[in-house]
Specification:
Length: 199
């Protein structure tokens, strides 16, 4: 172990960690001997669910599952299967944590100290990005790229995350169109449109 530490000290010039507000997101910038720099994102444990950068989307997904008649234990299983991560050092959700998640919702809708706005309400036929991605059976990151290309309709709203969050619009007809687009060969996908407004 001492030898490994010595080798690391000879390779690294500086390691700078920057926490994104109170969230779990941390940017790590490594400056190597010689001047080359690399940057990566890592996650840190946080004490409260409301500190998570994706808290609003997590809550939306849990509410959608509850509306389907899922129990708290079943909701925990689905969230774990979909890759959602809880706060603190636990790797997975359990039923009691889902109870705590719903209990936190009322406080989360109140303005925070410093004037932070409550989460934007959903309009008719609006979905959070993770919820619509799940309904379409596709990765959320792919659906996000569709929004940026103008293939899916949505609006960006303020949130606890500095980058904001997307609310996407999809009624039954739009869901049918998006499902057809997802199954179409890539060669038949439309060319990127003008990026949607973020206001």
């Amino acid at each position: 172990m001492p030898q490994k530490k010595t080798i690391v000290r000879q390779l690294l010039d500086e390691v700078l960690l920057t926490v994104d507000g109170e969230s779990e997101r941390v940017t790590m910038v490594i400056t190597w001997v010689g001047g080359h720099r690399t940057e990566t994102r890592i996650s840190r444990p946080v004490g409260r669910l409301t500190q998570l950068s994706y808290y609003a989307d997590l809550l939306d997904r849990a509410h959608a599952l509850r509306q389907e008649g899922q129990t708290h234990a079943q909701i925990a299983e689905v969230l774990n299967a979909e890759g959602w991560a809880p706060a603190k050092r636990r790797a997975t959700f359990n039923a009691s944590m889902i109870t705590s998640l719903f209990a936190s919702a009322q406080d989360a809708t109140k303005p925070r100290e410093g004037g932070r706005l409550p989460a934007a309400p959903h309009l008719e036929h609006e979905w959070s990005l993770p919820a619509l991605a799940h309904a379409l059976g596709m990765p959320a990151i792919t659906l996000h790229s569709w929004v940026r290309k103008g293939w899916a309709k949505g609006r960006k709203v303020p949130s606890a995350a500095p980058a904001g969050r997307w609310l996407l619009w999809a009624d039954e007809a739009e869901l049918t169109r998006l499902r057809a687009l997802r199954t179409a060969p890539h060669s038949r996908w439309p060319r990127p449109a003008t990026p949607p407004s973020t206001t």
